[in-house]
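Fold this complex.
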Amino acid sequence: MTNSQVRVRFAPSPTGYLHVGGLRTALYNFLFAKKNNGKFILRIEDTDRNRYVEGAVENLIKALKWAGLQYDEGPDIGGPFGPYMQSQRLEIYKKYADELISRGKAYYCFCTPERLEVLREEQQKMKLPQAKYDKHCLHLSNSQIEENLAKGIPKVVRLNVEPDQKIEFDDIIREHVEFDSNNVDDQVLIKSDGYPTYHLANVVDDHLMQITHVIRGEEWLSSTPKHVLLYDAFGWERPKFAHLPLLLNPDRSKLSKRQGDVAVEDYRDKGYLREALINFVALLGWNAGDDKEFYYLNELIEKFSLERVNKAGAVFDLQKLNWLNAEHLRRKPDTELLLLLKEEISKSELKDKNIPDGKLLLIIAAMKERVTFVKDFIFNCMYFYKSPSEYEQKAVEKNWREDTPQHLLKLKSEFEKLVNPTKEDYEHALSKVADELNIGKGKLIHPLRLAVSGQSTGPGMFDLLFILGKDEVLNRIESAIKNIKV
Ligand code: GLU
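Structure:
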């Protein structure tokens, strides 16, 4: 290879959205590039016109950028090896396919879909492990080929796979891998519509773009013998391969839409932080060799190595993602959470309420240890923004006694005396009332919480009172006395 710099690529097919498995592949490529001062390239593999989805490329780019995985070369930013969209490189693939044909490594095939279907049925009847092309067109004479081409008979170009060969390659994760060439079909390289297949375009581009390491999902392992044959047929140096373990549902089936979200944008829309999703995805098949699970992207870059990627499938555990989200959220400065919270508020029913930043910061401080998502600062504690319209029934049954209204009225009149009360002022006032009534403080705190928040749990009682403010507290005690019926 002329270039000794590490060059890796993420090469998605634009099928609509970025799959979390794709995010993992992109992330490992990114980490490997950054760790080795190399380049990370985005290449769009869009030569399958049947699978083309409008807007998919834009979606992919948006999701990668959201995740913070900025590439060094790519379709929207260019680079020295562009274009980076395969549909804009058709001439290149044609030229290389012609080269293989002229060297006997590939050949034209004019077989009709009907003939191929009959062949497949025959092979099925013979119980062959897999359908394979029978090399019929490899034996056409030059003049037959010329004639067919002149007549414009539909054709494909196929790779000429020599039988009885051992195809071997090394994989950084799976170590030594061997395939028997008798199990490898004479793969189509150029389809009848003139477009290349994934195999040809992928190998030609990896070579021309000077890719040093091919890091991709395990589902591509069975394509690798074909790629290796192509590198050898061209006389090109092979890149190093690393096939990443499958992602599994908790029941160990292959990760699928049916069991949960698979699109990165779904996680984003549900309120997962990019830092948490990246951290989580990094651990799907990799660990640094210790128990550490909390990472920022820069630490991942420092620690990452392909040698520590597992062979075994990685289970997608949503509980762990939630835990990481809460951890990342807690470690953010309150000022950053404020911006995120204001964004959530602007999308919620509270959007027209003018809530001062000071109040939001107090809510953040009070709730930080109790939330998983930024939106929980709203929906887990609506009582900060609106007085309760209902009261938790179980808590009413448990904590609201006949004498409760009388106790709360006494508390209310004690609170009325306070001027600009602090948390401590509320606390002293409550202790005083408890003493006077000769009851435990809990006998006041539980009904008071219920009265002001409608709930039985939440942040510290006196934080809650302080954040609500005296007038609001007094009003809420009054309405609770009026509205709570046992
Ligand atoms: N276009 C393939 C995909 O959609 C790329 C596989 C590879 O990285 O070689 O994942």
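Residues 88 and 229 are 25 Å apart (CA to CA).
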